[in-house]
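> example.struct
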């Protein structure tokens, strides 16, 4: 769980006092993950986050910790055990509640920036009454940002994106954590539309390579388009600072600036204020995403199928995994290929969403198969939306009534157009959940 405590003056004495009194709770009996959740056996350690311009502290990252001298002392052990016992959402909610409890008790100033690393399962779950008021007060009093991990996003993008939309509706901002751990999440960056990018610490552990360049390409393009804030993690040595800054980071954290401690360690300058960019808005255009801008062209079906096949090949051959959503009204790809061809497409795609009429669709790894009712108006169209960090495409075609194998189509290479159509199709696919 991550929090940034932003102030222009040193934190009040109450913060240090409360943190100083905080100790890791001890279980009363042999510890199980069920008892950790039931008895709220969690605490937090704080690591400073600094401005890379002057090394002034701008906040802290708070790490959730379990009971000491137990198998659940680390967050990884706790959450792994929770996942195995169907308590993942409960533990995630509890971790956020414990953080909110500390934040509210220490009397931080209103609108303090709070980064909370949360799991989609917890964000989408119903909040227990015992936590609801506390979490609501924290959101009302402070500026809360929900962090979604790179691996969580790529592991189940449909659920992660739904969670991001839910917290946005509550006025909470969104961040992606450990971005660049792999290339899988690069294409999903504009789909998630985070306000903050927290770079994976592995990017600073080695000399720049082709992977670093791919991450930089994605980060630079997105940051320039949105003004998103970039945070470098895992900074241990002075010589890593130039690389962190060259990757676009304004903020950083790591042992160079201070290790995690039970009491937030403040410098003599106190805590500098830093402002997030304008909130990223998602799909605030009321027009139909299926009606692409530009001229509507009449074309033979053969041309539409060849264009679709070209886009499918482009995704399959992309150096960086693509994100795609495809409407298949006849139970086949727009190119005419059978749906079984998704197996090949998914091998090099970070997200492949297929929307087809009611049918028994064989599950394919890394493919979300959405079977919608046969009369769904979406199936009046054939559509493809595809994005990578370097390219984007959107195609929507509609059969012309009373003319055999003739279509009208609109085609766009505009990234915003393709991103909006992709988001729309993801939302429609979620109707099948």
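> example.seq
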């Amino acid at each position: 769980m991550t929090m940034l405590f932003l102030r222009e003056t040193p934190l009040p004495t109450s913060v240090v006092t409360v943190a100083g009194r905080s100790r890791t709770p001890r279980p009363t009996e042999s510890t199980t993950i069920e008892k950790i959740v039931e008895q709220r056996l969690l605490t937090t350690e704080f690591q400073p986050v600094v401005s890379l311009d002057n090394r002034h502290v701008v906040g802290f990252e708070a790490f959730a910790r379990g009971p000491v001298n137990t198998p659940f002392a680390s967050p990884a052990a706790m959450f792994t055990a929770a996942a195995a016992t169907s308590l993942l959402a409960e533990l995630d909610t509890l971790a956020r509640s414990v953080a909110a409890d500390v934040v509210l008790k220490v009397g931080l100033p209103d609108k303090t920036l709070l980064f909370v690393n949360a799991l989609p399962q917890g964000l989408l779950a119903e909040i227990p009454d015992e936590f609801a008021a506390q979490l609501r007060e924290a959101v009302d009093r402070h500026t809360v940002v929900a962090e979604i991990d790179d691996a969580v996003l790529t592991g189940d993008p449909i659920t992660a994106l739904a969670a991001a939309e839910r917290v946005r509706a509550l006025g909470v901002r969104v961040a992606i954590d450990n971005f660049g751990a792999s290339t899988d999440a690069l294409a999903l960056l504009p789909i998630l539309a985070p306000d903050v990018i927290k770079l994976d610490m592995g990017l600073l552990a080695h000399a720049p390579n082709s992977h670093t360049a791919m991450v930089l390409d994605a980060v630079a393009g997105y940051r320039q388009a949105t003004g998103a804030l970039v945070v470098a993690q895992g900074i241990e040595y002075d010589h890593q600072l130039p690389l962190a800054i060259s990757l676009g980071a304004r903020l950083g954290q790591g042992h160079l600036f201070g290790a995690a401690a039970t009491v937030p360690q403040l410098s003599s300058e106190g805590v500098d204020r830093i402002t997030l960019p304008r909130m990223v808005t998602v799909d605030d255009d009321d027009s139909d995403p299926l009606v692409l801008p530009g001229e509507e062209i009449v074309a033979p079906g053969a041309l539409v199928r060849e264009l679709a096949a070209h886009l499918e090949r482009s995704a399959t051959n992309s150096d960086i995994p693509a994100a795609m959503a495809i409407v298949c009204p006849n139970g086949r790809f727009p190119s005419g290929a059978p749906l079984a061809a998704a197996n090949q497409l998914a091998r090099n795609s970070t997200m492949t969403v297929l929307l087809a009429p009611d049918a028994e669709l064989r599950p394919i790894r890394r493919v979300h198969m959405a079977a919608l009712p046969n009369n769904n108006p979406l199936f009046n169209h054939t559509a493809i939306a595809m994005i990578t960090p370097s390219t984007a495409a959107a195609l929507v075609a509609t059969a012309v009534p009373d003319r055999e194998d003739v279509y009208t189509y609109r085609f766009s290479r505009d990234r915003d157009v393709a991103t909006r159509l992709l988001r729309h199709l993801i939302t429609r696919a979620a109707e099948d959940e």
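> remarks
The two ends are 28 Å apart (CA to CA).
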